[in-house]
Amino acid sequence: MAATLGTITSILQLVDTAQTARELIQDFRHAPEEQRRLLSEMDDLRLLIEELQLRPVEAFHSMMEHFTEKLKEGKGPLAKFRNRLSWTMWSKKETTEYLDKFEQFKSLANSWLSLDIRDMSQCNHKAVLQSQEHNHNTVLQSVDDVANAQQHNHHWE
User: Fold this and answer.
1) Looking at the domain assignment, is residue 138 inside a domain?
2) Which region among 22-26, 53-57, 73-77, 82-86 has the lowest average model confidence (pLDDT)?
3) Which domain, by its residues, includes 120?
4) Alpha-carbon distances of 7 from 15, 48, 69, rounded to whole Å
5) CB-based burial of residue 64 (10 Å sphere; 0-12 exposed, 13-18 middle, 19+ buried)?
6) pLDDT class for 106, splitting at 50, 70, 90?
């Protein structure tokens, strides 16, 4: 009975080790695609940062630059292998944290942009109202001038 239990435990450990190895191999194989996806996401965020130059984004910008440097592909077959291995061992875990921070920043940036759009629409609305008021006053003044001229002409006849 103990031998059977030991055999089952060994088989379960072997299955777990095989599954872990499979996951590491999959991470190793998919590292370039995942890195490209992350770099693409960072490029999108970089555009937002440029758009939001007046906002306090220096810390986020430096974090992005640091991570971009980590993800840059090296030259030569050994550098590519090292990059994939590094990705498999530690970068993928760190990437999840970075992606969470990127999503938080994107949400914040979208809120900033929404507020800017709202402010611009309010300014435009005020300008439209002022223009309408000016046009209304101009039309009323013109009608008043015509009425005064007709009254003045009628008075002289």
Assistant:
1) no
2) 53-57
3) 2-127
4) 12, 57, 48
5) buried
6) confident
For residues 82 and 88, give the distance between their C-alpha atoms in angstroms, rounded to a whole number. Answer: 10
| pLDDT (0 to 100) of residue 134 | 83
Are 48 and 106 in contact by the 8 Å Cβ rule? The answer is: yes
Tokens 């009975």 belong to residue? 1
Question: Quick one: how many helices (H) and strands (E) in the chain?
Answer: 4, 0
In a domain, 23, yes or no: yes
| Token pair recorded at residue 152 | 């003045």
Distance of CA 119 to CAs 33, 40, 60, 80, 129, Å?
Answer: 40, 30, 25, 48, 15
Q: Is 133 exposed, middle or buried (0-12, 13-18, 19+ CB in 10 A)?
A: exposed
Inside any domain, residue 136: no
135, part of any domain: no
- The answer to whether the predicted template modeling score (pTM) of the entire model surpasses 0.70 is no
Report how far residue 41's alpha carbon sits from residue 76's, in angstroms, rounded to the nearest whole number.
Answer: 25
**Number of domains into which the chain is organized:** 1
